[in-house]
Amino acid sequence: MSEIRKHYFLDEYCIIAPGRSKRPSVFKAEKKAESSSNCVFCAGEEDKTPLATAVYKNGSILQDSESSRVRGWDVRCVPNLYPALAPNASEVNSDLDVFPGYGFHEVIVETPLHEGVIPDLSDEEMTLLMKVYQDRVMHYESLERIEYVSLFKNWGEKAGASLEHTHSQLIAMPIKPPVLMEEMKVIGSSSRCPYCDIVERESKSERLLYENEHFLVITPYCSKVPYEMWVLPKVHAHHISGF
């Protein structure tokens, strides 16, 4: 039986239709041959990308220079060669509601190994990657015109990843998305943190997928897409720097 479900605390709705999972499909999973040749993200190919904005190596944070690229790195952050937003955006002449695409678009290369994937990272490598995420978000949030930083990862070609080598992306923009503004409004007017309520409720529900001392993973009651999962901290934190 289909259900129309409301978001935990926002005025948003989704349709849960279990019967649709039985519909026929003609799509096949295609496995593409892997190749590291000419991969600009691999170790040794540093000259093929723009100058790195931050290079994490042996516990230090370094930067490329015009005369020298940092080698032997652990995690490398570079400007996206085809950015959605750019710091040198030009003015737009239009009678419509439009303004320059100012911002930053950065690629975070998670490992120098072409075949490396996040599930295979060691605890130390994963801890470093989480620190990189914290550092880069906080760096861009500190810039005067930046209002919102989005950190995301596409996995596979069909999800939008154009390069095979595992990487994340970060976009820093001068506006806050309306959905975030609505969340902030609701949270600000609530006597309790809605996300703390979600953690308390879902920790006892059938939607709980995984739990440890610090986090839990759930399939939200109001999932908008198949396989949607939320990773929620148990500690009351409003920012990535809080844990």
Describe the secondary structure blueprint for this structure.
Layout: E1 3-6, E2 13-16, E3 54-57, E4 60-62, E5 75-79, E6 104-109, H1 123-141, E7 148-152, E8 167-173, H2 178-188, H3 194-202, E9 208-211, E10 215-218, E11 230-233
Antiparallel strand pairs: 1-2, 3-4, 3-5, 5-6, 6-8, 7-8, 9-10, 10-11
The rounded Rg comes to: 21 Å
Major β-sheet annotation = 6 strands, antiparallel
Low-confidence stretches: none
Q: Could you give the order of the helices and strands?
A: EEEEEEHEEHHEEE
Named CATH topology of the largest domain: HIT family, subunit A
Structural domain tally: 2
At the first level of CATH, what is the class of the largest domain?
Alpha Beta
Helix/strand-derived category reads alpha+beta
Taking the alpha carbons of the first and last residues, their distance comes to 40 Å
Keywords:
single chain; 243 residues; alpha+beta; HIT family, subunit A; 6-stranded antiparallel β-sheet; 3-stranded antiparallel β-sheet; 3 helices
Describe the structure in your own words.
The protein has 243 residues and is α+β, with helices and mostly antiparallel strands. The protein has 2 domains: 46-175, HIT-like (HIT family, subunit A), CATH 3.30.428.10; 189-237, no CATH class. The chain contains 3 helices and 11 strands. It has helices at residues 123-141, 178-188, 194-202, and strands at 3-6, 13-16, 54-57, 60-62, 75-79, 104-109, 148-152, 167-173, 208-211, 215-218, 230-233. The protein has a 6-stranded antiparallel sheet, covered by helices on one side. A 3-stranded antiparallel sheet has the order 9-10-11, covered by helices on one side. Strands 1-2 form a two-stranded antiparallel ribbon. A hairpin with a 6-residue loop joins β1 and β2 (13-16). The longest helix has 19 residues, at 123-141. It is globular, with a radius of gyration of 21 Å. The two termini are 40 Å apart. The mean pLDDT is 86.
